[in-house]
Amino acid sequence: MITTNEIMIRLLLAALCGGVIGLERERKNWAAGLRTHMMVCLGASLTMIVSAFGFADIVGTNGVTLDPSRVAAQVISGIGFIGAGTILFLKEGVIKGLTTAAGLWTVAAIGLAIGGGMYYAAGTATFLALIILWMLKPVEIKLTERFAQLGLKITIANREKSIDILNRIFCQPDLEISNFSVIEKENDIIISFRFNNHKKNLVLDMIDQFKTDKDIKSIVWNK
């Protein structure tokens, strides 16, 4: 049977570990910040304690057995609805909040570990999570900039002009096209491109040329 002091230690430690990871999200002004991470970790720890020790009075009576892992599994799967609430679809191809959702899932696992008395595993996971979220951020930014792609979407009024635009873009020797699509919507032709190398000036020059064309209804570009 677990003592009251041990319960207090586990719950406090869970709140602390969740808070440390939550601080990293809080400084970036995410909705799931300090208090959310603390509550998730604390709740997961309490759930594990209840799962492991809360049914001690009936275990062994009338053949009753206990499997604490069943409740832990439900916590890991159930935390998904909170994580889903932190994911934002800002625009086509741009999704924010996946790291925060993964952090909440990890915090729940840390809480379960603390609730089960696995302090070393919980502490190590908290330390590694902080390295991933904080110290590796500059590396991620550099890699993102290096492999960034540029998107270009052009809406054209007629089919003949769309063929001309495609030829002009494909004839640009310095543009590495990763993919493109042509969609006919009502009376318009929508051409979308993704470029491998991020040559912003070259694309802007090309857009300036397209602006003077009366058959082009709109031009949208983003990275």
UniProtKB/TrEMBL annotation:
Cellular localisation: Cell membrane
Matches recorded under Pfam families: MgtC
TM spans (from-to): 36-59, 71-90, 120-136
Leader sequence residues: none
Coiled coil region boundaries: none
Keywords: Cell membrane, Membrane, Transmembrane, Transmembrane helix
CC annotations in GO: plasma membrane
InterPro entries linked to this entry: MgtC/SapB/SrpB/YhiD_fam, MgtC_SapB_SrpB_YhiD_N
Superkingdom to which the source organism belongs: Bacteria
Its membrane topology: Multi-pass membrane protein
Stretches assigned to the MgtC/SapB/SrpB/YhiD N-terminal domain: 11-140
Family of this protein: Belongs to the MgtC/SapB family.
Protein name in the entry: Magnesium transporter MgtC
Organism: Niabella ginsenosidivorans
Lineage: Bacteria, Pseudomonadati, Bacteroidota, Chitinophagia, Chitinophagales
